């Protein structure tokens, strides 16, 4: 088959190892080391071998950006210097030969100072939990080293592969844009203010200079062949010529080894189960495959040209305005939406095409555009034999032992050709298309716009075999596109021709078919241009992402500083330098084992047998832990209903933990876990949606409906003078789904046996529960479990109870093996094992008078709790369904419903957000029914002094007391948000545009904060030698700024600089018996306890101070130390303390625009006002507000959870299918105001909580989208009400707009 005249791999030109630099230090990796193999990724080498833990990981799919590093090398084809960000979680270690790699540690640190990027992110409040921060910084660092001049547009496009759940992105974007050459004046002013308050302990060095790089890297790439052989019998070849590639192919084929060609390796982030392979051929150093040329025949691009270089090359062609390449600019714009920056930086054209060839269901945008443009591929079957194959024919041809050499795109000299392509995806950035489309028309230049020849109409995302709509192409030949009959004939033909497959979690066939018709219509409208009606012309355009901007308004009282001062978080600099240590960053312990869960693959049935023998045969696999091995009760929920650590027999949901495999490394443990065989019996089809009772409850439904309680307001009196006589009945149902927390640090625990206790490092929000559960499971006293938590990388409620599951499993494994054990979940396990936000359904019947006032309301509320009722939030939902309204005449039945899914758990604003969402939906429905302004309906039903409470705060607190601030807030909002004028503009816009619609919506909230008796001990110690202070508290720092606020509070009480205060890790000694950190109360109660502890110390020191003459702090403390004053004190909040509950008021206006032809949308503007009292730290509080609101945007729009109906398995279990918001999804104009002149007389230091209330206002985006949809429905001739459930995805938008291709016209 192959003939090799001479070997390309000789002893003189071939090595058996790779070498690269990390932060200037040389690293050599050899197969003989036995540590790293072909499957080893760069991120693991950086963290485990180089011990640089600033680089994080989470998804290991190239979808979250936590693992980004900067790479510098020379392009082997051009010799040009290349600087790029790469996903180190995807890059094989053996692909890194010759690279210069920089991690976040190289930019700056506490000792040497911080780079400008790090400092700006600190100053702009761009960190919260900090887990995503190093990846953000390295992406920006790569951009600044790559480009001499960075523009704000570059930064807007930069973060498409970085996910941050905490911040809402706005402060990160602002921080980076302040470094751009065209930075807005406002950001420069902010940067100047911050420059006067430099990062503590920081002398800012000059940034790394790319000129140094030129000295480090040789002028010409030094290409060396590599052939590495491993003990596993795997081999890794790195040829430098095409002949070398085919020699490697021949060797592997001859030896019977399956092989894989590697060029960037990004495809493994999508298709993880390809293989197994024994041979790997990394072709990235083959200069012949990197050509980029343009000539009279067209564009030729080598197989190894990356998507980034392709994009840049096409942009250069477009700027040159060369005739015949009009497709260059739109093609580059389309490529800019493929994957994300780091993936495009290493992913190659041929690699993308081969993904399509090997997985034809893959909707490749590259294949689509090349097919549309009649491109050809040069395919080599040997080093001397090539052939040119058209794109469409290539897809069905064999590529066995063949190689793509180059791609040729022809030049289209005739200006009558029109090219257009589309990508409709669930999220604007970093999302694969539901449908993509390419169109190439040759159009007559006369007024008729006639199709001269057969056009190219290409679609992806239809079926694995569908490529071209050939029948539709045929009917358009010779037809005028201005003729409506031509349009309708094409739509009818396409309707019949397109038959999409139906496979979850893909979008529905109905939606995908509709998209094909809409996209063809858009293209025709573009071709027809101004000859189309003015109302239809907007249909030709696509929704585009605009440049984001924000505005933050808040009061400051300098007399209170450091309280009320917008200071940076005290951990921010450490987070930006990678010095902040998370639990997963704790270096490996001596003899440490890694644990990987084995999960059930069915949702309902029984375990028949478990066979771990094959897993235990693997080298360096030590044990398999299961239910029978648990020393004590097999239960991690010791305070509520039992839940098993490991399933003992009865499967409750797909993804339930069956056991834990222990291996010496992460890779070994995960490989072994796949080999554990579990057999099932009595398997049943699962119940995945709540089975709700009929309108009236009966006992037969109590098997699925586990609770049945009623809360009531007082009955409305018949002679109530406020009520108008005419009455309207409004009834309906509203459903909305759950939400995955998407904490960037997945569940993690490290257990280390000590001489007299078990040391536990758990990413938990509730140390006390974790301690109790471990002690119970191990059958040991609680004082033998010592837990420490410095920080956790995001949580949002997922780590209140569910972290205990991971911790107890880890502890059991550590106890049994008597070795340190680490369990750090991969994203897929984390998503399948752990429950989500509870979905809800409300059924309601409401009577309203002519003015819109509710006279009677009956509602049934159902919370889907999953397979076990534990972390239910139904009580809060019932309480918060009142929101800011009078509940006279209300009756609400609340119920919990079981399904065969993971037990749902607390998620940011649990119950409160669902309760407010339900009542706000009612207000919207009433307004629609009465054809009134929804704000008018809300206002007339507002709560007032003396109004009854649906759920009394206590037996003595049954009515609302005080002022409803919303009326004044609304009046202010109408001016500050220009509300009245904007509603008129929206109305005019909708009247003038058939296919683009806008909506605007207002949501008010009253969020009653109840401290619920939560307890958090706080311990304050002052050191006599220098007066420095250390504080330990029972709260958990997870990004909410609790440590910063406590430090500010202590500094304020002692009148000392905040720099003299250090906050230490939380633990179960100082923080013994502390409650969970959550419900937005932890920061305030820790600050309160700190004020009491400080006051105790001040009172003790007062007699000494009175005897001294104006002593400095240091003199006072030294004297107190000499005379034996106890300089330590502690306090824990109790109900006896003078801290009262209070209401938080909020108001949000959201404006959106939708495309009625595709369902795409953008959030044009959000004006959010929250009553934060006198904020302890406005920067932290605004960060909490923005982050919570953006999390809500995801919940109500893009974050859709889908399960397999047969197995019950979660199908949206990674970044490929589950889509939280990215930087492109936030409001284009995002304005946040902390209510002015509104100190809180009841709270801690006159402040109010901010962490959860803003999330409750995120439903304003859903309502604004609904209003836009209603405008589209009116144009379609339908005025009836429709309840559109959440999440309101693009698919639902298009379907509910009633867009009908049969009514398309020109």
Automatic annotation (TrEMBL):
PROSITE patterns recorded: 2FE2S_FER_1, 2FE2S_FER_2, FAD_PCMH
Domain of life assignment: Eukaryota
Domain FAD-binding PCMH-type residues, every copy: 229-414
Pfam families for the chain: Ald_Xan_dh_C, CO_deh_flav_C, FAD_binding_5, Fer2, Fer2_2, MoCoBD_1, MoCoBD_2
Domain (2Fe-2S ferredoxin-type) ranges: 16-107
Recorded catalytic activity of this chain's protein: indole-3-acetaldehyde + O2 + H2O = (indol-3-yl)acetate + H2O2 + H(+)
Oxidoreductase among keywords: yes
This protein's UniProt keywords: 2Fe-2S, FAD, Flavoprotein, Iron, Iron-sulfur, Metal-binding, Molybdenum, Oxidoreductase
Cofactor section: [2Fe-2S] cluster; Mo-molybdopterin; FAD
Molecular function terms, GO-annotated: 2 iron, 2 sulfur cluster binding; FAD binding; indole-3-acetaldehyde oxidase activity; iron ion binding
Family: Belongs to the xanthine dehydrogenase family.
Designated name of the protein: Indole-3-acetaldehyde oxidase
